[in-house]
Write a structure and sequence with these properties.
The complex is a heterodimer. Chain A has strands spanning 4-7, 10-13, 19-25, 31-37, 43-51, 54-57, 64-66, 76-78, 87-94, 104-105, 109-113. Chain A is an all-beta fold. In chain A, strand 5 (43-51) and strand 6 form a beta hairpin. The radius of gyration of chain A is 13 Å and the shape is globular. The mean pLDDT of chain B is 92. By secondary structure, chain B is mainly β. The chains are: A mainly beta, B mainly beta. The interface between A and B is medium-sized, with 27 and 22 residues.
Amino acid sequence: DGGITQSPKYLFRKEGQNVTLSCEQNLNHDAMYWYRQDPGQGLRLIYYSQIVNDFQKGDIAEGYSVSREKKESFPLTVTSAQKNPTAFYLCASSRFPGFNNEQFFGPGTRLTVL
Amino acid sequence: AQKVTQAQTEISVVEKEDVTLDCVYETRDTTYYLFWYKQPPSGELVFLIRRNSFDEQNEISGRYSWNFQKSTSSFNFTITASQVVDSAVYFCALREAAGNKLTFGGGTRVLVKP
């Protein structure tokens, strides 16, 4: 089945550590996105990529880094520079360009800093 | 800058009642797209509907209906005869034609009691 997978589902990090969240899609979508969701709040865009080897900062990119070496993969690294990383992270993808480009979401990764 | 406001943070109803979720948006673009997503307790966002700014027809899909009014910049969502399975957080989102970024509202939590 086509879809988006994220791993791990739960992730625990000690302060000062970098961690990488995985996102893979087999929908043949060009564009991929990372969002952060805090309790009781909406989604905020961290980074997005429209094509391989290219990505742009979203609204809250500080303390995060990404890469897009393959069309199917868009990993997110949460660095030690991110002061409050505990949150729910959602990856999404969409066809780009085009009007029929609603975003499809993965199941999410819940990151907790110990 | 674009903005989406969902003034209702939580709505509680008894099964079979109707429930309407409000969404008000701001944009300077004349061409834009509005979306509704559902986030069940599992966390994954599920796409419900996309509406183009130049199509003001209301839409009905089963128990779901949407009322788009450009004059008041609103895109409201009604669940008719609610069911316990409708319990979730619902997000309204806006995408301007010039970009591929979604701006989300803060979400409305719907609790349907049996």
